[in-house]
Amino acid sequence: MKKVVKFGGSSLANAEQFQKVGDIIRSDESRRYVVPSAPGKRFSADTKVTDLLYTCYDKAEAGEDFTDVLTEIKGRFYEIIKGLNLDLSLEEEFRQIEADFKAHAGNEYAASRGEFLNGKVMAAYLGYEFIDSATVIRFDKNGNFDADKTDKLLSKRLQKCERAVIPGFYGGMEDGTVKTFSRGGSDVTGSLVAKAIHADIYENWTDVSGFLVTDPRIVDNPAVIETITYRELRELSYMGATVLHEDAIFPVRKEGIPINIRNTNRPEDKGTFIVESTCRKPKYVITGIAGKKGFCSINIEKSMMNSEIGFGRKILQVFEDQGISFEHVPSGIDTMTVYVHQDEFEEKEQQVIAGIHRAVQPDFVEMESDLALIAVVGRGMKSQRGTAGRVFSALAHAHVNVKMIDQGSSELNIIIGVENRDFETAVKAIYDIFVLTQM
Ligand SMILES: Nc1ncnc2c1ncn2[C@@H]1O[C@H](COP(=O)(O)OP(=O)(O)O)[C@@H](O)[C@H]1O
Ligand SMILES: N[C@@H](CC(=O)OP(=O)(O)O)C(=O)O
């Protein structure tokens, strides 16, 4: 049995958390490959080491003195090393980092040092081999992640290795340039390692007892999802359920390796199993609710639009030409609405409007900003009539004005558009009707 275990920043924020992690790893012989993140927040107002590194590097780039921030970062690591009674010095590593910052090594290199250093601490603490991810996670010469090369490098390297620590979040180009995944990317590293060694399971340890039906920052103590499919999870993580990086799904999914989300602070909890498919009936009609704020809608109206072949393509072409991706395109007989990210859209607003006028000569174009999108996801919705109706009625009772509702043909999700300020109320109302009342 081979397990890959990834520990998030919250699980490695201080020596006490490290000890919990050590106990978890030592309690199961098969936990052989460990992927650590950088130390995260020790308390809610704290700063993640990754964020300190970005700040520190910005100062270096601007030619300012960055000694204070670097000393703070160093302090975070030595607090852990001392708390664990380790005989480990990181002086050489910090000298190198300081020199590299002065030589403008790049902010991806800078950010990666949190995982690099934490990997060193973890390897010393466990007595496992340390593998620098820059040598096994490969980015091509354009800086794009190279999945095939990575798989080859990782499997070859790990074949020779009984137990190893492979830091999360970063990799390297052939010439040694360090690249990182997007934020939260240690989850991706864990998934890649699991694929490469054909792991039996990929355990992803965090600070919640699994994937929760909704964000615990919105609803107090939400129910835990016992089993979720990759498709459901993809919908939820894309829409902002941040527990697992959305790109962490692909590598393990192809191999049929289940992911188990676990809580470092409550290792006795079973957590959530993420699987390709399951015959297990979900506990509730819906599996989860997630959402994001910060969208804009562009509503285009033109009489007889539906008989104009190519109308939709022409509209979407305008967005493509401006490099703007769209989220949703609900349409009626004479209207078509395009939902886009507000921050992407705002600066190109006028070009897009002009483009639409040129492309399709609409009767009028209307825009609305500060909208939120909520995804209600569940494999159980297919076999249950009236789900959309219940969403509507819950939102009406909560006095939330629904701007848009869009049910995908897969019947796996319903997308609802509301105003930003109604976002939390809407999520709570949907949670209540499907989970608290257990219908
Ligand atoms: N549906 C959800 N289920 C569980 N946690 C969620 C959900 N949506 C958002 N979260 C948040 O995600 C956090 C865990 O992810 P993250 O901060 O990336 O952890 P880590 O540092 O362990 O990688 C939780 O503490 C929680 O606040
Ligand atoms: N440390 C990186 C990568 C990461 O995955 O961290 P975490 O596991 O704490 O989300 C970040 O903050 O983005």
From TrEMBL:
Ranges for the ACT domain? 376-439
Going by the record, the broad EC class of this enzyme is transferase
In this entry, which stretches build a coiled coil?
none
| Catalysed reaction equations from the record | L-aspartate + ATP = 4-phospho-L-aspartate + ADP
Q: Which residues does the record give as substrate binding sites? A: T50, E115
- EC numbers listed for it are 2.7.2.4
| UniProt KW keywords | Amino-acid biosynthesis, ATP-binding, Diaminopimelate biosynthesis, Kinase, Lysine biosynthesis, Nucleotide-binding, Transferase
- Job of this protein: Catalyzes the phosphorylation of the beta-carboxyl group of aspartic acid with ATP to yield 4-phospho-L-aspartate, which is involved in the branched biosynthetic pathway leading to the biosynthesis of amino acids threonine, isoleucine and methionine.
Name the UniProt record assigns to this protein: Aspartokinase
| Originating organism | Blautia obeum A2-162
